[in-house]
Amino acid sequence: MFKNLHELIAQMPDEKTCREWLAKQRWNGKPVCPHCGFEGKIYVIEGGKKYKCGSANCYKKFSVTVGTFLEGSNIPINKWLMAIYVCTAHKKGISSYQLGKDIGVTQKSAWFLLHRIRALMDERVEQPMKGIVEADETYMGRKYRSDYVGLSPEEIDYKLKTPQNKKGAVLGIVERSTGNVNVKAFSKIKRDELTDYVRSKVEEGSSLHTDESSLYRKLQYNGYGRETVTHSRKEFVKTSETGVRVHCNTVEAFWSVMKRGVHGIYHQISYKHLQQYCNEFSFRHNHRHLKDYEKFEIVFKGIVGRLPYKQLVAPKK
Ligand SMILES: [Zn+2]
């Protein structure tokens, strides 16, 4: 494995070395037929470009990328790998324009690459959060007419004029002891949806630290503790009766990195892709202690999944 971008490029200068590397990662040197799962004799054909299944019932040809999200891609494998590396390593992300220039593909191809890589970063915190958990909402991601399908043109005009409807809502929850974050995009935050989401991520009995928002009231009276700071009165930190520091500063710090990334790098993001950007930023945040190549490995492991182009550009239902 390589330790930095330079080594990645040096180890995989061409398509052949990439394919060999990929085969080693995927099968550990012993190819398995993706069509029938045959693990016996597999023939190497076409000068190493393809394989042929040795099972008498199958005999199908396949390449190392079949069934992965690299299958059928016109973009060379080493450019994919470079893109994953850069996207996981840069703290605030990278724009499709910049990535395209860096690795020598069009902006459109780079945009597609980045969206597929973000889909691989959809790796939330598995363990339920506990102890002190900060929760906060913010607004980002621009909505378009297509986000309001089913409404009359007048209603859509009205919605797109009012600030709280123009953007998507994002809920962030942070476990104080680990600093890890879960981020969820909503079209509009409603109390029931927020309650369900927090319940799915935070253990009962935990203490929620929030601002004065009434959205958390249902949780407060049903299994969760709650401490608040009153942001509208410019109160940002206080000490509770039991001597605990009450604040939402950890989640606020996460918002500030994400917002600087979104405004500075991506400029304008659409609500349709908001969750994907949330995944990208929370992935990097939750793996902030790892080395760049370790983050690369995590994303790379998801490579067998695919996100077809049609699904990516389809309007959100
Ligand atoms: Zn087979």
CATH topology label of the largest domain: Nucleotidyltransferase, domain 5
Number of domains: 3
In the CATH hierarchy, the architecture of the largest domain is: 2-Layer Sandwich
Hetero ligands = zinc ion
Low-confidence stretches: 306-313
Q: Helix-strand pattern, N to C? A: HHEEEHHHEHHEEHEHEEEHHHH
Distance between the termini: 40 Å
Mean pLDDT: 87
CATH class placement of the largest domain? Alpha Beta
Count all strands and give the number.
10
Shape: elongated
Largest sheet: 5 strands, mixed
Please supply descriptive tags for the structure shown above:
single chain, 317 residues, alpha+beta, Nucleotidyltransferase, domain 5, 3 domains, 13 helices, 10 strands, elongated
Task: Note down, in words, how this protein is organized.
With 317 residues, this protein is α+β, with helices and mostly antiparallel strands. The chain folds into 3 domains: 1-72, no CATH class; 75-120; 132-287, Nucleotidyltransferase, domain 5, CATH 3.30.420.10. 41% of the residues lie in helices and 15% in strands. The chain is built from 13 helices and 10 strands. The protein has helices at 5-11, 15-27, 77-89, 96-103, 107-120, 153-161, 163-166, 191-201, 217-220, 249-266, 274-286, 292-301, 309-313, and strands spanning 42-45, 50-53, 61-62, 132-142, 167-175, 181-186, 207-210, 225-228, 238-239, 245-246. Strands 6-5-4-7-8 form a 5-stranded mixed β-sheet, sandwiched between helices. A 3-stranded antiparallel β-sheet has the order 1-2-3, with no helix packed on it. It is elongated, with a radius of gyration of 23 Å. The two termini are 40 Å apart. The model is unreliable at 306-313 (pLDDT under 50). Residues 33, 35-36, 38, 53, 55, 58, 60 line the site of zinc ion.
